[in-house]
Amino acid sequence: MGAGPAGLTAGIYVGREGLKTKILEKGVIGGNANNAPLVANFPGFQSITGIEFLKKTAEQAKMYTNIVEYEEITKIHKTDGKLLLTTNKGEYSAKALIICSGTTYRKLGIKDEGKFIGRGISYCSICDGMFFKGKEVLVVGGGNSAAEHALHLKDLGCNVKIVHRRNTLRAQKYLQDKIHAKGIPIIWNSIVTELKGNNLLKSVVIRNTKTEIDKEVEVAGIYIAVGETPNSELAASMGVDLDELGYITTDKNQRTDIPQVYVAGDVTGGVQQIVVACGEGAVAAVNAYQNLP
């Protein structure tokens, strides 16, 4: 369930054991990892875009398993020791399930945010960054994703600034060093409170949380990178245990509290990195195979 780094890796490992497997993906292969402008910390690749990394991984996975895009699981229940999966296209019976449902980008939660998605608001600089070359762009957030988007947009020739609600970034030090080296301005202790424009975004209102002073800034686009929400609703509906943040809890073998149900990737929380997702996918697959009923 899910064709991101965790799901694809799990498919490789289970498929190599000769089992009949299928990866169901409600969207396109790759998930959020497709949006990574640059992957520079995965062993074996000095640097590679998220899209290219996922393309290579999917090509390998297809050697061992069938990957189905745009098929969403809507219900899961156990009966007679098997798992019955209902999707928007049909039904499946399985001896084991590996959930790799990932996360969804968190929104700012302000008026007209949905209206401007794709019309100035974006979550993927590698997808549409070129549209903003030479234009004013804001990146909202302070973690690794925000830093990576800002650096990528700068390299594309955008006039980019970072808006962060705190006075320090959460991004890794090497990313912060690159931001400073490239002279990317950071608007500290600030949040975006209002979006303005007609069909396209024209400006935003930024509020300083210390002084409570608002300032309107003309922009062509903003990239939102303020975290993710785990896609764990379906797992919760079948009784899988979640932590206080909604992430699925597992043991060291990626097992949930329901037999034959395993989990891997960002939906487990913790260190949300591609290399970790791949590792968890492998662990889940090996244990699913070894413990088949």
Structural summary, described in words:
- There is one protein chain.
- The chain is an alpha/beta fold and 293 residues long.
- The chain folds into two domains: 164 residues, FAD/NAD(P)-binding domain; 112 residues, FAD/NAD(P)-binding domain (3-Layer(bba) Sandwich).
- The chain is built from eight helices and 17 strands.
- The strands form six sheets. Strands 8-15-9-10-11 form a five-stranded parallel beta sheet, with helices on one face. It has a three-stranded antiparallel beta sheet with strand order 3-4-5.
- It is elongated.
- The mean pLDDT is 92.
- InterPro entries: FAD/NAD-bd_sf, FAD/NAD-binding_dom, Ferredoxin-NADP_redctase_2, Pyr_nucl-diS_OxRdtase_2_AS.
- Keywords: Disulfide bond, FAD, Flavoprotein, Oxidoreductase, Redox-active center.
Summarize the helices and strands and which ones pair or pack.
Blueprint: H1 5-16, E1 22-24, H2 50-61, E2 66-68, E3 73-79, E4 82-87, E5 91-94, E6 97-99, E7 103-105, H3 113-116, E8 121-122, H4 125-128, E9 136-140, H5 144-156, E10 159-163, H6 173-181, E11 186-187, E12 190-197, E13 201-208, E14 214-218, E15 221-224, E16 228-230, H7 233-237, E17 261-263, H8 274-290
Parallel strand pairs: 1-2, 6-17, 8-15, 9-10, 9-15, 10-11
Antiparallel strand pairs: 3-4, 4-5, 7-16, 12-13, 13-14
